[in-house]
Design goal:
This protein has helices at about 1-15, 15-20, 205-210; strands spanning about 25-40, 40-55, 55-70, 70-85, 90-100, 105-115, 120-130, 135-140, 145, 150-160, 170-185, 190-200, 215-229. The chain has about 230 residues and is mainly beta. It has one domain: Porin. The protein has a twelve-stranded antiparallel barrel with strand order 1-2-3-4-5-6-7-8-10-11-12-13. Strand 4 (about 70-85) and strand 5 (about 90-100) form a beta hairpin. It is globular. About 20% of the residues are buried. InterPro entries: Cu-R_B_prcur. It holds the Pfam family CopB. It comes from Candidatus Viadribacter manganicus. One of its GO terms (molecular function) is copper ion binding.
Length: about 230
């Protein structure tokens, strides 16, 4: 099934590339890197995205991951074709590849845009090469305290339609992350930040973690930088 998902995903991601290039072409690269000490371990995370294209069609690349004490515990990349479907919303489809904790390929389809009350929203469904269905919702909101000081509450939820024993994941809502990032924009393109993050496994996934003797919740204060160009 993996070759089929790759072919479908890359076809979706590239189907409108030629059309996108026919429009006036823009591009953007945006990223965040931060670090924290959690339960005695040094944790570094990254999240980045880049797009190229016009007002209607774009090609997106996204990546995120985590390094714990020098070992990569999670890493994923996505390549997506994006098409504007309304004033504030894009439909996105393509392929996601997890590089860690194991190599798995997914077909991805979702929406990205600005929900009412100016919530930046990403909602994506994933179908793995093994037929596992999952979904991810991410929302964030910029609250300007001053022109340069910004507080950004954010939330991410993950859910699965079935158990995935090899990753100790149970069906249902599996985990949640709530945070408040406070950043100071030295320039509009560069901002150091502190991110106060609370994470928890949920439901059956939390039960599996407890049976393995693992903590199901953690809190951290992450120091990092945000940039775009």
């Amino acid at each position: 099934m993996k070759p089929l998902i790759l072919a479908l995903g890359l076809s979706l991601a590239g189907a409108n590339a030629a059309q996108a290039m026919d429009e006036q072409t823009f591009h953007m690269v945006r990223g965040e890197v931060d670090g924290a000490e959690i339960d005695g371990a040094d944790i570094f995370t990254w999240a980045g995205e880049a797009w190229i294209g016009g007002d209607t069609n774009r090609i997106w690349f996204k990546t995120e991951g985590e390094i714990e004490d020098g070992d990569v515990h999670g890493a994923e990349v996505q390549a997506l074709w994006s098409r504007n479907i309304s004033d504030f919303w894009d439909l996105q489809a393509g392929v996601r590849v997890d590089l860690q904790p194991d190599t798995t390929t997914y077909l991805a389809i979702g929406i990205q845009g600005l929900a009412p009350y100016r919530f930046d929203t990403e909602a994506t469904a994933f179908l793995s090469e093994e037929g596992d269905l999952s979904a991810r919702l991410h929302q964030a909101f910029d609250l300007h305290l001053t022109q340069r000081l910004i507080a950004e509450p954010h939330v991410e939820l993950n859910a699965y339609a079935q158990d995935i024993p090899k990753r100790d994941i149970g069906a249902g809502l599996s985990d949640a992350q709530l945070g408040l990032q406070v950043r100071y924009e030295i320039t509009r393109k560069f901002a150091p930040y502190l991110d106060f993050v609370w994470e928890s496994a949920l439901g059956e996934t939390a039960s599996i973690a407890r049976s393995n003797g693992e903590d199901v919740r953690s809190q951290s204060v992450r120091a990092g930088i945000r940039f775009w160009f």
